[in-house]
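Q: Entry one of two.
A:
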Amino acid sequence: MEFSLFDALTLIGSLGFFIYGMKIMSEGIQKVAGARMRQILRVMTSNRIYGVLTGFLLTSLVQSSSATTVMVVSFVNAGLLSLVESIGVIMGANIGTTITGWIISILGLKVKLADMALPIIAFGFPLLFASTNRLKSWGEVIIGFALLFMGLEALKSAVPDIKSNPQMLEFLSSYTDLGIFSTLIFIGIGTLLTVVVQSSSATMAITILMANEGWVPFDIAAAMILGENIGTTITANLAALVANSYAKRAARAHFIFNIFGVIWMLLTFPWFLKAIDVYMVGADYTSPFQDALSIPIGLSIFHTTFNIINVTLLIGFVNFISRVVTKMVPIQSDEREFSLEYISGGLVSTPEVSLSEVAKEISKFGKITARMSGFVRELINNKKSKNKTKVLKKIKKYEEITDKVQYEIATYLSKLPSAKLSLESSLRLRGMLAIINDLERIGDLFYQMSLSIEQKNESESWFTSDQVKDLLKMLVKLDEAFEIMNANLIPGSKEISLKLAIDKEKEINRLRDKLRKKHLKYLEKGEYDVLSSLVYADLFSLMERTGDHIINVSEGITGELAKDEEDVLD
């Protein structure tokens, strides 16, 4: 019997079945954990040992080191985890992913869980219609668990019988007796397979099934597992492609950690496998070198022991790895511009001095939000601009930056000991919290404008020339308001132009009212496209709301100063 195209498609479909079940279960567990998982990552990473344990526990639950590492990369990108903290979590994730091998070796191959899969689905299916999201997520976990083992059973059935297909064994055998070159070849195959499948757990399942069916010997299967350890780092590096340099560093740290482990394992490979063989024979198992049925357990022991030893060897070098990847991935100029530079060194001993440093950061924050006006102007001016997509991405990036800056400044301010603050400083701190909230909302509003313009771009119609001119007039007013606001935000500024700020805000409101009346007049005449009118009205309303937040910033500053003066007079 030959292995036909239909058989190959059945094998690929079975693999897809297995991966889909794992994906459903993994996503369900992440939904169940939700914010709690994020809280665990933030709280349990202050110590590198805790970080390793956190990574192990999360990956054991989620059953995907890729999910954990991608999550870690996103947390580093958002500034919620430092590089050193992320390395510890990634190390633990490598140990946690070995649990999959044990599940497949002990349950998947020896216990017929697939026979119970449909009853399990019958139990989980009603939960999908529950009123609470948590119960729905538990339904996904249960169904995903059942689908995973149904997929594994389908995968076992789809793997061709070697006795009926000796040519496959002959093909593989021609590459299994080349010594160290065989090891390197199958490390490469394991890496490539993991990159293609995008799941080291799925590749582990394939490797165990191949070995269990007698396709490859124990040492070759172990070499493929080493390759899977390299291939799994690709997922995190792909996730980091669109992230900042800090996230790229975390992904590179994952790669260095796994590559180092593969290198030292290659140097001790024959003796390491021999030690596992001796242990299994002594524990009343048959030798994995002689009995294919013992290979799955042998591979699970190899995978777990290898990763535990690798973590033990490198856990003391976390800071060194951090320095290496820092040199590998330098901070880009724009990221350096958007990173906090005045309060990143931690709290200073005098709270009042800390507030002065925060004031500098807020002043810089104001300039960042003001730049977004120019991006929106570019989108309105040029419907067919080749840089349209680039500008939209830039606005989204700036919006994410405003979120991050607000979070970091607010976190810093929350650490200031309120008992040591004077009344003046306490009022100043409250004003700062209000100001950064307004600046973050300005970023959100500009992002909403870009989404409205993007929606407009997808239609054939565009704004009329009058509409474009009117929107640009509104942006000019906003730029003038920003100029006043940023002048007021300069630390130590003696003259706070509250009157100028209020007058400019009134001008923005009057222009908004004028545009609204003009818009309704033209709309009644039927001279506007319906979609154009909706987007146009949405834009000038968003611009007027932006002006409200700009004046809020100036009023926050002057309000503090007025209160200070009253206290001095008293």
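Q: Entry two of two.
A:
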Amino acid sequence: MGQVAALGAATLLVASVAAGQTGAGNAEQAPEPIPVEQFFQYPAVLEAKLSPSGRKLALTTSRGGKRVALVVIELGDAPKATRAGAFSDADIVRFDWVGEDRLVFSVRDLETGSGEDQRFAPGLYSANADGSDLRQLVRRRGLPFVGAPNSRDRSLEWNHTLLHVPLQQAGVAPDEVLVGKPEFGRDALESVTPLWLNVRSGRTRSADLDGSPSHAVEWLFDSKGQARVAMTRHAGRAAVHWHGPGETRWRQLIESDLLNMPFEPQAVDDAGTLYVRHNEGPAGYAVLSRFDFAKLAPHTPAQVSTPGFDFRGDLVKERAGAPALGVRIETDAEQTVWFDEGMKRMQTLADERLPGRVNRLSCRRCGADDMVVLVRSFADRDPGMLWLYEAAAKRWQPVSKVLDGIDPRRMATVDLHRIKARDGRDLPVWVTQPQGLKPGQSAPAVVLVHGGPWVRGGHWQWQAFEQFLASRGYLVISPEFRGSTGYGDAHYKAGWKQWGQAMQDDVADALLWAQGQGLADKKRACIAGASYGGYSTLMGLVRHPELYRCGVAWVAVTDLLLLLKGTWWVDDDVTGELRSHLLPQTVGDVDKDAQMLTAASPVAQAKRIQAPLLLAFGEDDRRVPFAHGERLRDALRDAGRPPEWVSYPKEAHSWRQVSTNVDFARRVEVFLGQHLKANAP
């Protein structure tokens, strides 16, 4: 992994923001635009976690160097910070406490645009909280062993990943974590085999999974690390298997095709309760229920439901063997429903001190008179602030901003609207409204289409690209078109085989609604997006040319047949399983739906794209290979409408490098200015 950076004392940078002063407020229009670099910087703090005792706080930070390092702060009256891990050629991206005095962490090279390819080979390391006794547990592919001088190399091969870190248990040495060894077949991930790994010695032992099912690709463990659920996938079929406390054999709970599983395991507790996510009602909103092993079905009524939204969240736990403290969910915004009375009072205290914000609590000795609480407080206009609360002293301390240099008073507001699509379907639409608009004043609009497409695109939180566009005076309209997840199974499935059709109509309807409300200028709108959003941008210019003055598409799917069939001379990461069992149902069958796919393929419809277009691609992209961009660029040139074109070496499907994000944003700013400003043709 290259040379390990010096592990010395680090300076604790405490934000100078007083409580209650980070929220919204009206500010005069700034004379100069906010620099592009402010929006696309690495976060000052990526992740933060309290140690099991609550006496230490570990966080990953980019402050003080070019790489993301792991810093541990000894809390108290005189906090002391130490670098527990830092590397000269990689960034620490995931970590966890293993007991009170040791941490385990993985790395990724965030300066390499194709860094997402490292997700199967991130390496794994452990070190003491003061940075001593660094040990390499899993190698990074193609890089040499890194460890203390004269240490013995027991590190596992690169194809092992961290699966689970047990919660601390009384009387049990907290020295082991669970890692998994994936096995890949020709077309897909075939299985993942868990094993115990000692983070101090590097030794491994069996996870005692005799009789477990073959083709298990996902596992759920209880807080002590006992495997309770194995999810298998093979030949287009999926199944859920269970091994409860005291049981001697694994048993199958359900089997189905990949797209129609009746429930999804979400969590298990130490008493043998299985929590599952399943759909209810005509709209198919996902809810959380306990599983009834006698009936082999979820309990009714549901334990947690979020009307109008799919259940999306996690149980909040602190100690092994203890019941869940609450459940964290996301509807329009994130919130936590606490079961514990002490944590209910703590949430009220935090919300009163930091009003109008999401205040996410992580605690040790939760609910007790001497609890320690880490509060991550954020809002639509504020990337966030970390606070520490010590109940015994009733003391609040600011820890750090999440992003430096962001003034919430100059940021845009974000709201979720529910409108009706042209066929009557409920259509959620996120609107990011720029500062400075007078009542009744419309703004030039950018319809920003999310990727996926089978994801939820919007969230009530600060998002860089939306805020950047809004800072330049644009209203940002982000529709959750049919096919998006998070808003009911019916909404998701309504998008099957609707690429470039009803899905595209939803995007247009969101703009027409905003124009009808007087939010968006009726004559000045462009469409933009990445991945599927880039595809939708192209098809928006094909299907609804009267609505958009221009388009910005990056890492865009342009050739549906290339996506669905693949070809031996274009390298991609679309598996045979996807092409055989999922894409034919969700996008289209290359034989049965050939006419539909041709009509919905931007390459085939290139002559119909008349509006100015900015195209951008990563040259190392394997999700949407560079060939997609080249084929459309050539087709547009042949049609006499060459696009503005940029490609980025060493970038893949997501822009990873700050320099790439900044360069691309500047190009977008200039391009939109040419076509959306008041004097634009």
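A: Comment on entry two: Residues 36-401 form a domain with the Methylamine Dehydrogenase; Chain H fold (CATH 2.130.10). The longest strand covers residues 520-530.
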